[in-house]
Amino acid sequence: MNTETCAPSEAAALREIFASHPDAAPPAGWEAVRSFEAEHGIVLPEPYRSCVAEISDGLRAGPPDYGLLPLAQTPSDWGEGRAERLLAQPFPLTQAWQWEGGDEEDEGGEELSGEEFETRVEAVYDHGSLLLGTDGCGMYWHLITTGPQRGHVWLIDEFGAIPFGTRPGALVMPGTPGIAGWVAHWAEGRSWFADD
């Protein structure tokens, strides 16, 4: 997965998918993208960066279920009073982490104090990622902007965090990693969690 340049094949696939949806938003343009990047101290990963600038800045019909958010927006159910989103801070995970039931261990199984656990969960939600949208019920899709998982798409909810396009143990989220693979997976009508 190349997050530095937009492969022509990925751009073509994204153009085709967004062109087939009349509710696709117009592109934001390079000036808006560069302004957002300067404000947050990041460079968006490709091909998302080129998609937002040249193809489409959002889609009401999805992906995800409640639509692909325009750049810099959060879902209506994100909540007020949350910590500031720090897109330039590295995303803290490199593998799936299930924290369901309040197990106070990190993704590697190391014991965390209650405060360390809460701080770690907050960082998963708010550091190094851009919100792509929601499937409802607190299930948020994030594009990782900073850190070793840059360019990957993750699903983060009250139970944990899992990268799209991986097979971590019992958790299965098949597909091609990255935003182009994630959009194509949705456009093909495939399930997020099982082989079709």
From TrEMBL:
Chain ranges of the Knr4/Smi1-like domain: 31-159
Species for this entry: Streptomyces globisporus
Protein name: Knr4/Smi1-like domain-containing protein
